[in-house]
Amino acid sequence: MKAEQLDCFMTGNELAAEAAKAIQFHFMGYYPITPSTEIAQIIDRMKAKGEVSTVLLPADGEHGAAGACFGATTGGARVLNATSANGFLYSLEQLPVQAGSRLPMVLNLVTRSVSGPLDIRCDHSDLMYALQTGWIILMASTPQAVYDMNIMAVKLGEHPEVRLPVMVVSDGFFTSHQRQSAKVFKDIKVVQDFIGERKDTFSTLNPRQPVTVGPYMNDPDLINNKFQLHQAHEAAAKVYKEIAAEFEALSGRSYPALETYQMEDATAALFLLNSAAETSKDVIDQARVDGKKVGVLRPNVLRPFPAEDLNAASQKLSSILIGERSDTPGSAGGPLSHEVRATLLADPHCKVTTLSRIYGLGGKDFREDDAAVFIDEALSASANPHSIPAFGFLGTEAGSKKNLPPQVLPPLTREEMSQGLTQVEVVKSEGKNSPLKVTVADPSLLVARPKRIAPGHGACPGCGIFSGLDQFFKGIEGDVVVLYHTGCAMVVTTDYPFSAHRVTYLHNLFQNGAPTLSGLVEVFYEKKRRGEIAVGEDITFVMITGDGGMDIGMGPTIGTALRNHKMIILEYDNQGYMNTGGQLSYTTPFGKETVTSHVGKTSFGKSFHHKDTVAIMAATGIPYVFTAIESYGTDLVAKAAKAQWYAKNEGLVFGKILISCPLNWASEEKYGQEILQKAADSCFFPLYEVEHGLTRLSYDPEKDGRKIPLKNWLEMMGKAKHLLKPEYSEALEAFQHEVDRRWSRLKAQSEHPLL
Amino acid sequence: MWIFGRKSKEEPIYARKTVSIRMEAIGGQGANSAGKIFAEAAVLGMGYTGNHFSSFGSEKKGTPVKSFVRFSTEGKAIRTASFIKNPDVLVIFHESLLQTHPECLEGITAHTDLLINSTKSPDEIQFPLGFKVRKFATIDATTLALKHECGLNAIMLGAITKFCPEVSSDLLLKTFLRFFSHLPEQVQKHNAEGYEAGLKKTKEYLFEDSQASVDRPPEVLPRMGWENAPLGGLIVNPGNTILKDNSASRKGLLPRFLPEICFNCGYCDMVCPDYCFVWKFDPEKKQAPQLQGIDYQYCKGCQKCVVACPVQALVTVPEGELTAEEKSQHLFPQIHPKTKRD
Prior knowledge:
The structure holds 2 protein chains of 2 kinds.
Chain A: E1 5-10, H1 12-23, E2 27-30, H2 37-48, E3 55-58, H3 62-74, E4 79-83, H4 85-90, H5 94-100, E5 106-111, H6 125-130, E6 136-139, H7 143-158, E7 166-171, E8 178-185, H8 188-195, H9 222-251, E9 258-261, E10 268-271, H10 274-289, E11 294-299, E12 301-303, H11 307-313, E13 319-324, H12 335-345, E14 353-358, H13 368-383, E15 391-393, H14 414-417, E16 422-426, E17 436-440, H15 443-446, H16 464-474, E18 479-485, H17 488-493, E19 504-508, H18 513-529, E20 539-546, H19 549-552, H20 554-563, E21 568-573, E22 599-600, E23 603-604, H21 613-618, E24 624-629, H22 635-649, E25 653-658, H23 662-665, H24 672-681, E26 688-691, E27 694-697, H25 710-714, H26 729-751
Parallel strand pairs in A: 2-3, 2-4, 4-5, 5-7, 6-7, 10-11, 10-13, 13-14, 14-15, 18-19, 18-20, 20-21, 21-25, 24-25
Antiparallel strand pairs in A: 1-8, 6-12, 9-11, 16-17, 22-23, 24-26, 26-27
Helix pairs in contact in A: 1-2, 1-7, 3-5, 7-9, 10-13, 16-22, 18-20
Chain B: E1 18-26, H1 31-45, E2 49-56, E3 64-72, E4 89-92, H2 97-100, E5 113-117, E6 135-139, H3 141-148, H4 152-160, H5 169-179, H6 185-200, E7 203-206, E8 253-257, H7 267-271, E9 277-280, E10 290-294, H8 304-308, E11 314-318
Helix pairs in contact in B: 1-4, 1-5, 3-4, 3-6, 4-6
């Protein structure tokens, strides 16, 4: 019987969250990545309002998120995850573990192009890596389908004959951010009854029935485990049909494993995934009006692959054009083209001509006129199989060889970058004094240092990153090579074909910048040793990362620090994942509101204290560690000069600068520096150095009579000032206590050479 | 040569079965929300079928945003998930986009209604060659938003209703207020006032046959394709962001430089995120650098320098108060001949 439903107007991501609310998952482990992040954000907001009780675990990376999900499923929990692109690939090794261990869960893959170069828009290059994981893959072509398939996914995966994790795949932006009319069940009990209770044969939370999950299994056993996996997919094909029929009775919406649109008498067909198939339907309708016998095939289920349905649907066909948002370079066809061809070949009577077309990579739009091109090509092949190439790209542009990128600015010369504005000399030091004496020109003279970043970058008005980085680079003499982690500073300076970097710049993914730069540093010195680079050449290597890069990349950064390469790692800490829309990072202050730590009935903002990255890095024993803020003085400039000396002479330097983010702190753009000053005055962000293991305060607000309570700092930020309200006094007190504790400890360290 | 469109005698009667709207903006101007609100009013309010969809870069201010709304007044299923190439209504959230992102005018036809946030009146705007629209309007939304202390999108939403009689203006306002109902009452009041202002202050023109006045602004860099793009995504002319123009990121306020007060302390340069300060110095001479002015091509109007300046040689003024001469400072020498500035 059809259940009562409500009309809504929502995006794919909102409907994924809406389904999650109806399912009431026990647990969601996630890590922010565009365009899937919203799902966790919306569920977090629902949780703050008390609408769901799902445990949300903001992991330190997608690998960790997938691990957390795996652990949770062993305890018999209903588990959700959502990711995209490189995040998906970073978690990839966990996915066959989940499937091979036969532990059902749901993952929303909101598709996006895989780096590099880095592209945040939609294609299916991430999805294609999923095909080998053993997961069931459901394809949600509309926002409505995202809702419906999330619900079906739970029931399908948990079916006793199936027992597999399930991916619900929607197109990034095209579906995830597309608002459409949709229907949701009025009463979540309808959904609860449909999916039933989760039944497991074991639980790692039952000590009375101990089990061993994840054995060491070689031959001859593993092949049998994989045969079981194969059987599960065979069963899933059958079970899916039952569940889809049951769901149709409940909702009135039908999701056959292979959707056939206008296929009854078609001689030619397009085989398209997700939103592009929807876009093509109006064009197909028009082609039909024009008397062209053409239709669309669109799988709702990609694993198990609907081979029988495809064979049945292609009996009368002469041609199929398989359009793909992903290529398998070097194989003369996209990955699905090969699957479709192999399926057709299994039918000895099949005489269908297949065309493989790559389109829409990296978010390139698939418009109605593109669909019309595909239709014409398919019809041409249907009339004459050899009239048209079997493989090709749609929508590439040649450009002109005569039209090469013009040089706009000359490279910076070594002379203009080495004016001696900062100077460092080694002095005899005693006790806690620094062995280095740094001389820095006055700010009025430092303006003579050419900027290593050109203006015209796309940062938000008042962004603290670029004033902070400039103050740092004002302290650095000579040639520099920089590496930027993925993050705001990277995205807004290198929007192709533009680059704001006047010095050599490289990017690597979020978690891997430190090892990348360490490789380059070692090659520099080795090439110098071999005489391949002149002895006189001198480069300072600087890695720039946000606080996010120091979460997901903490492990590789610690490893790099322990190896003590001659380089500087500079963290700009804007206290959140601002590049992806302002999610919490581990350095986000206690109680601060972010899109993944909402303030509401059941929550007061971020629930755990800010990470002390500086202490972690100091513990690696590197020669120099510092903190600084943007200021009207030259503290940061001097520390940069010192960092350069250490990076050239001794080894790795870690520096952390606090940066204002007016957008996601909801603070006034013009008060960027003032807010940072209050962070230092309140001792939330103490300014200090650790040089050869000795801690030295650069600024003691207590001694200077300038120490202020945290609230004087927090009140300047829209996302933190709720902590001043009486109902959050306990949280504020806890925060103040922790800051005071860390400050006392730091003072003790600064007073004692052994601490 | 400028030729202006002529005003037609009467307004054609609207009888559209489907309506498509494209909004072109810079992140932070609220085009995404405006699209959402408009579509919500059309679908949930008016009962039309429709969709809304935005395309943006990373979630920041400063990057281009496109917001698309499609709806059908007769219940036709809206299945297309692609960008709107030929919009019935094209809304440009900031006149600077015409220069900085000329592609924002893509796909205009003689059926398009065009609305631009501009200080100019419709007959003062230059258009690319072969330009034709049906109806054209401007609204000084930046100034109005400052005046009413509301978002730019409040003004623009009010103005859009003029082009979409299919959606009731009252209903749109209701949807708009509900959308931001979580915000303080004062903000909602300002939004409502802004919306009304948008409705009233639009300067409209109906075009019988409009014509081009200038060439389409050249793209600052050549189109890169597989024949001319360096392998591996390499950018071989770094520093080329100086060709960009960040003026569309501003909200109507700018710092003004008062050279007679300045004593060249350099604090402004220490805090400016956009590297706008122009200095004159000769490395040979031991003379301290002198501040010449601000390169407004890059200034996004954050006013950090105004706060930093110890002697008030930098003050906040409405953008319109600055003279062309004051705006003429440039940081970098002109190198690329195609991109003459000024």
